[in-house]
# Entry
Amino acid sequence: MTAPNGAQAAPAQPGPAPDLLYSEAEDDLRAAVRSLLTDRGGPAAVLADLESGRTHDTGLWRSLAVGMGTAGLLVPEKLGGQGASAREAAVVLEELGRAMAPVPYLTSAVVAVTALLGCETDRPEVAGPLAALAEGRSVGVLAVPLPTAPGTLPEPAVRADADGTLSGEVTGVADAAAADVLLVPADGPYGYALYAVDTTADGVRTEPATALDLTRVPARVTLDRAAGRLLAGQDTARAAVTGALLAGAGLLASEQLGIAEWCLSETVRHTAQRTQFGRPVGSFQALKHRMAALWLEVASARAAARNAADALATGSPDARVAVAVAQAYCAPVAVRAAEECIQLHGGIGMTWEHPAHLFLKRAKADEIALGTPGRHREALAELVELPAP
Amino acid sequence: MTTEETTEAGRLDAEGLRHRTADLLAAHPPATTAPLDFLRARFDAGLAWVHFPRGLGGLDAPRALQAVVDAELEAAGAPDNNPRRIGIGLGMAAPTILRFGTDEQKKRFLRPLWTGEEVWCQLFSEPGAGSDLAALATRAVRDGNHWTVDGQKVWTSGAHQARWAILIARTDPELPKHRGITYFVCDMTDPGVEVRPLRQITGEAEFNEVFLTGVRIPDAHRLGEVGEGWKVAQTTLMNERVAIGGARLPREGGMIGVAAQAWRERPEARTHDLHQRLLRHWVDAEVARLTGERLRQQLAKGQPGPEGSGMKLAFARLAQQISGWEVEFLADEGLLYDDWTLRRPEGVDFTGREAGYRYLRAKGNSIEGGTSEVLLNIVAERVLGLPPEPRTDKDVAWKDLPR
# Structure
């Protein structure tokens, strides 16, 4: 190597080794969530339900959020939650991804809850909605477009007036149709600020879009002088929203892991049974190598997703790197797994009756959600000091 | 006697091993003891590989406690046994001899193997038996108390330095190919053994061809039963793959660190395309590191996961992609090569040489120790449980197979 020209030091090493395994309590939680989802029929039932035009399974949400208390995993007990951590919420999301469950867990129990936890939780304006979300009594969503990446906070599309009313329009707000309360970033008398708006209030309109992903539908939210309650202003509001997006992106990796796992295991099951040319198609090397390569990616995605969940749970200074790595890696793995699932199922994979298409649609939407892999690599370039030309 | 044994057993925790290590250092101060004498004393004290049996370099202690001994000895500046030079002996021959060897074989071979006085090599692969190792054609014919061996082996690392080899040879061509194989220890100084360097793509000769002509092996140097050689070889091969996939790395450890540092030091060579690809490789390398870390955490909890089978695949692909990126990044300098001299290195040094060497040598990562294609088959069949490929050769006598 020639003499360094403006050489930079290598980026700091991560702290103590993260715990990348599952604890016994996490295994128990997984078993309980999986059993509930299996009882309710899994992906096939989701498919049947969608035929009826419903985008959310409110019965399932009640069992999951209220019955099992999973909505409050991230919330301390004194604030009405379970006092667990991102590690446990990640396990729930793995199972929800595997079952393709149409419930607002990521949007309400992770993103909205984290946004509220970033505000001053001893104020009743914050503590009230936080406890309601934690107990599953209400569903909240953060009113930003689903593709928003952590670290690229857009200027708010909503304006707050001096009388506390909000006006403006936000598109692509996931699960808004299921929400009772919107957490709305807005510009106004307090600068950048975060408000709570009830979806039943006058001047609030949510219009679900016709969406690629049938199980997590984005909506257009229009506010016309709607009454808002101030949650936080200025730096607190920005930090709360950024932290919420970071937690959402980091835990989305676990949902993506669950999607990839279902796609791989269904593909293995199918190709081991389906015969052509006088033998199971899964015995042909050309196919089994594709599934083995996918298995390696899924095993790797698990390490990346666990690392992100652990970094979020421990408040590690490495969390931003861990989340960017997890999203840059896991999002394409979920998409590839779903694409391979369709291809290796042959014709049946192309049909509406087989649930594979639900996974492809969610996986592709998840790749865009909370920052594309490209956005997360750009973030990494800065975080680990590999500057663009 | 009973009292002494109780005391011994009571000392096999970390603290007990620290005491034993301190005793060894006191009796043989590294500064004034010849390295070989020190290594012999360490073996005799049972501190070579603590999980091995007493009298064979160990103390029947938990394997994890070896780290305690190693750390104490390193801190005291004790000589090491150059594990790179004797890697095949340590990683492949020793576990196989321990599991299948007779008492005489263990006593004869393990001590000089561990001290490095005797280097070992491995005579498995042949020109016609690589991935399909059981297709091997080297013959061993019984002659009273001896076997006479004829054939050709290839890809033999370190054969030119080796005193002994582990060897598999066909002893019954009438049986199907996996059943007619027997496992031997071959004396590399036998006049019938001829070693020729095999020059590689990098210009170096890590490997050799080995020609075996009328080599006489005493039956006492057979490992395991006649015809059971394939079973014995499985032990050897499992240990090989663990050795290839097992290193622990810090973030940006290994080849990605070299590439990242080159990027930081040469802003003038940066392009957008190279930046995009570097970031992808960085993510892949970081995830491979985490996957290895997760595997080690599973092993430490006594839950071995199947991830081990995949780590070698990931390592090979990463090494090839990153080294290819680096040559391209270096542009006009990437057109150069550091040295084509035929050298005989003691091992692969990926970070000690320049980009062109890394690029060329990494091509071997997806071939040596099981090709990536064979490993994908193993993952598909043993981890995912997919149906095996139909085998037309399984029940046919080896002599009747087309060649």
Remarks:
- DSSP finds twelve helices and eight strands in chain B.
